[in-house]
Specification:
It is built from 12 helices and 9 strands. It is α/β, with parallel strands linked by helices. The chain has a 9-stranded mixed beta sheet, sandwiched between helices. Helix 2 packs antiparallel against helix 12 and helix 9 packs across helix 10.
């Protein structure tokens, strides 16, 4: 197959839909065990999103448990949202345990301590780094935010603003980098996949970004050799669940409930026909 034919195949929406369904089906069949060292705000929604998708969450963060527990997991999810000096050694140890792992650098630019911790973790080669545009820009530039434009865990940039930074970060770290936004961009530094599923109301539910990163970890557990595809499909599946959940919702609280229910109920026809994934030129 020549390059033009390969590129056309990779941009085929139906093919991406089948890949997304195949990965979700595999998660449901295999129930990968995902160790989550995640922030206190996100534990509930991350665990419930993993369960609804068919994975098995484990909120294990004690350093003393890592040597026994982490090697038996299928993937590890590390989230620095409520970072503390006590948890950082556990994060480093779990990331070094030889399992595929995913990093969520929440508010990476909030402080020098947080930025240093994120850079230390990046050096341990996560399979995927998933953040909003401001977080990815901060990591790529290794910079702490100025007070005038800092919004905590919220982004002050659009995802497209961080695309070149994401490419550079992917090339320098060897990790797939996913930038969340109105359109999610996922890149390995050379290829870029765009995901257009989701609804703005999802931004009004705390820790939805954390929950989708947990789902990425479950998909990476199934497809560790192609983290680009795993991350893109997880983002599309989660965004699609938000779209369908929004149809029955009145606001953020009910959307949270319907999103998790929809994630549990997604079927092949819905996934293959409604995920919006494409390989970008």
């Amino acid at each position: 197959m020549d390059d033009a034919a390969t590129a056309k195949k990779e941009r085929d929406p139906a093919r991406w839909g089948r890949r997304a369904w195949s990965l979700l089906s595999a998660v449901r069949a295999r129930a990968p065990l995902v160790q989550c060292i995640t922030n206190l705000v996100s534990m509930d929604i991350a665990a419930n999103a993993l369960l609804a998708a068919g994975a098995s969450p484990a909120m294990v963060h004690s350093l003393r448990e890592v040597p026994d527990f982490t090697p038996r997991c299928d993937a590890v999810y590390v989230n620095v949202g409520t970072l503390s000096e006590d948890w950082l050694p556990s994060m480093r140890a779990a990331a070094s345990a030889g399992r595929p792992w995913v990093l969520d650098p929440v508010a990476a630019a909030a402080s020098g301590f947080r930025m240093e911790a994120c850079l230390e973790l990046l050096a341990l080669r996560p399979a995927v780094v998933r953040g909003n545009a401001s977080e990815i820009l901060a990591l790529a530039n290794r910079s702490v935010a100025a007070s005038s434009n800092f919004k905590g865990a919220d982004s002050s940039h659009e995802s497209v603003d961080a695309l070149e930074a994401a490419k550079a970060l992917a090339l320098s770290t060897g990790s797939v980098v996913a930038v969340s936004g109105a359109v999610d961009f996922i890149t390995n530094g050379e290829q870029v996949v765009g995901v257009s599923n989701g609804v703005p109301m999802m931004q009004k539910i705390t820790a939805t970004g954390c929950a989708v990163t947990a789902l990425i970890a479950a998909f990476v557990a199934i497809e560790p050799s192609d983290a680009l595809v795993a991350a893109a499909c997880a983002l599309a599946i989660f965004g699609l669940a938000g779209e369908i959940g929004m149809e029955s919702s009145k606001g953020p609280a009910s959307l949270r409930m319907h999103l998790i229910d929809t994630l549990y109920c997604l079927d092949e026809e819905t996934v293959t026909s409604r995920v919006k994934l494409s390989l970008r030129p």
